[in-house]
Amino acid sequence: MATHKRTRTGCWTCREAGYKCDEKKPHCARCIRLKITCKGYGVKLKWQDGNISTPVKRPRAKEKKSVHQVTSSSPVSIVSFASTPATFTSPSETTSSPESTRSLPLILFSPPQPSPNLSPTDRYLLHYWTTRLSTLISVTPRRHHSTPFQQHLTAMLHDSASLRSTILSMSANHLALSSHAPSLRIHAYRHQQDAIQQLQTLIQDPHHAATEPALATVLMMQVSARLFAADDDASAVNHLAGAQAMIARRGGVDESSSTRFLMSIFAYHDILSSVSRGAPPLAVHSTFSLEDEAEMRGIAAILQLVARISRLQHWIKARRGGSYDEPALTEEEDAEGRDIQDELLGMDTYLDGYGGANQDIAHTASAYRHAAHIYLHRTWLSIGAPHPISVAHVTSCLTHLSHVPIASPLTSSHTWPLFTAGCEAIDPQQRAFVKQRFADMYQCKQFPSLRRVMRDVQDVWGAKDEVERKKREGVGEGMARVDCIQVILRRGREVDLA
């Protein structure tokens, strides 16, 4: 009888099933033949809580490895919160620089703290993070000399090998795209593997696991996975569970400005990930401001209502068990929906004077409010376009987004409202605006996630138009019942909304 040998380099679907994979991209032949989701070839991390006892198979003698011996060829890295002390080491140069990178303009970087020994290419990548990439990721206005990412992370990464490797990987990925230098992906992959190894070592020491650099590393891994995951990777790595475990270990420590900044990044990604997962957030977030900037508090307040909508959605779905034959709403669910709606309506007056002289903030906050209305009505009342209420909020949301210049830092936070309103758009001109807006945002920022989200929106349009066509033929209820998020989740991946 033939046996199946577990593949080590194939797609994740074949690896998990133990079948040989032909490794064709973007999808392997076996997955296409069986009509199953091909989960891609990207690197995965498994976050495992060391406090939970789980049965582990005893490895064969020749396969035994310590955490220090994990190599870059290992596709899966188990990161656990163990109490065993470990040595915190700096990264080493494991590969030589690609020939093409030697032609890059070398700009010496003068850090606020002594820099470790870096290759010329890595010094350039670090400079690129400081002067370019950190400004593209940040969503706050450029009123200060530096962005919050520069203020809180740049100094921190000089003392943290894992954070430094993560930042260098992100810089190499982005520079490979923006400068059309694909050889830089070798550096991106090497630094990603270094970061995984260094983080594994770091978090085994309870003291180091509770530090700001450790939390910053995990959160930046989350940001990197969302922005730069390969198009053929069906499931971006989700580091939020690891970040939540780290925050729990920190306990009631005094919050510095850097801690508040990191907590705001966690809250932002956790809440928007709850939307894309169709599940409640991992944590209940107290009052915060985006990137710990006071002028962004209004947007954060709306995100907290979005978190409540995600929890309401979870309650309703859990009770219904996936069936619309169950009662539409209980009294408690209806009361929660009305309360959230009242708070969103009450924000209309509050946002009129919000943002002060910076109208980009005011328009972004208003777009978030209308997107939250769309999400609430889909969750609470199971309605969407072409219902007049949804159409009105779509129009208002897109109008506010159109008033923000494409080069504004605020557009880095526009993915969720643009996706939410875009999916419900039925007017051809509005759909054309959504496509062009995503294209312009990508041209400005060069984040692959923007192209993926636009393709997700187009898939939703295709699903909605198909059910609407069937409705005209007397079959089904039409596009109003199509849940945008569920269309994407059926393909085995989340939408990159953060």
From TrEMBL:
Ranges for domain Zn(2)-C6 fungal-type: 10-38
**What biological-process GO terms show up in the record?**
positive regulation of transcription by RNA polymerase II
**Looking at the UniProt record for this protein, which Gene Ontology cellular component terms does it annotate, in alphabetical order?**
nucleus
Q: Which UniProt keywords apply?
A: Nucleus
Instruction: Please give the Gene3D superfamilies that the UniProt record associates with this protein.
Output: Zn(2)-C6 fungal-type DNA-binding domain
Q: Which intervals carry biased composition (Low complexity)?
A: 86-101
Q: Name one Pfam family in it.
A: Fungal_trans_2
Annotated region Disordered: the residues are: 86-112
**Stored InterPro entries:** Fun_TF, Zn2-C6_fun-type_DNA-bd_sf, Zn2Cys6_DnaBD
Location, primary (coarse class): nucleus
Recorded GO terms, molecular function? DNA-binding transcription factor activity, RNA polymerase II-specific; transcription cis-regulatory region binding; zinc ion binding
- What subcellular compartments does it reside in? Nucleus
Organism superkingdom: Eukaryota
Please give the name of this protein: Zn(2)-C6 fungal-type domain-containing protein
Q: From which organism does this entry originate?
A: Ophiobolus disseminans
